[in-house]
Amino acid sequence: MKVLLFALFGLALGSSSFAQQRFVQLDSTTHFDRYKQKEWINKYEVISSEDSSKFYVPFLSIPQSTPTKVGFLWNKIKRGKRAELEFYLDTLQLKVTEESLKLDTGVLMLPARDDNYVVFVKQKNGAILAQLNVAVYWYHEVDVIVVPLVETELNTDYLGAYLNTVFGQAQLGIHLSIDPVF
Questions:
Q1: Cα 166 vs. chain centroid, distance in angstroms?
Q2: Residues 146, 30, 12, CA angle at the centre, nearest 5°?
Q3: Is the C or the N end of the chain the one with fewer CB within 10 Å?
Q4: Beta bridge mates, 128
């Protein structure tokens, strides 16, 4: 039997930038890093846009060998200009679905991969509009048993959902149960 102890800390890093809000999660198998771990600030890539403003590049974690959909918010990009944007994974050009060009969110299908990769969104002139770092993880599940040391009321559903939100970013599914007080 494995005993796991968790220390959970959440520290805010600051305000969101324009680029962080470009990519959105479309399903429950992917997880975006929301820049809440101050300890990891040196791991976040920062790039400059055409107007010299700097922004963090978001991370998306996905299951290994699984094609994944991700959304791209058009924001202030006019419908006639949307088809001019180019989406690249290495040298492979990706296309948003044709019907999503008319919606508020473009749908981009990311291919199944076994290794991490980067998606670039470029304007017609080659300038990078947005970037997404994709971390590919092997999905696995673990059973976690919480044994309280003092009499307390723990909500299994709430705690399980919270742990799955935190560790889901590493493609780890947690099945939680709570035993009686030790």
A1: 11
A2: 70
A3: N
A4: 122
Give tens-digit pLDDT for 37-46.
Answer: 666 677 778 8
- CB proximity list for 94: less than 8 A, separation 6 or greater: 87, 88, 108, 109, 110, 119
Q: Tell me which of 5 and 31 has the higher pLDDT.
A: 31
Q: Which helix (H) or strand (E) holds 8?
A: none
Please write the tens of the pLDDT for every residue from 48-99: 776 677 777 888 888 899 898 999 999 888 988 899 999 999 889 999 988 8
> 24 vs 34, 74, 108, 156, 160, CA distance in Å?
11, 11, 10, 28, 23
Q: Give the separation between CA 23 and CA 59, rounded to whole angstroms.
A: 10
Residue 153 to residues 51, 122, 144, 180, Cα–Cα distance (Å): 52, 51, 17, 10
For residue 116, the tally of other CB atoms under 10 A from its CB is 13
84: CB partners within 8 A, 6+ apart? 123, 124
Q: Write down the H helix ranges in 38-178.
A: 79-82, 156-167
pTM to 2 decimal places: 0.71
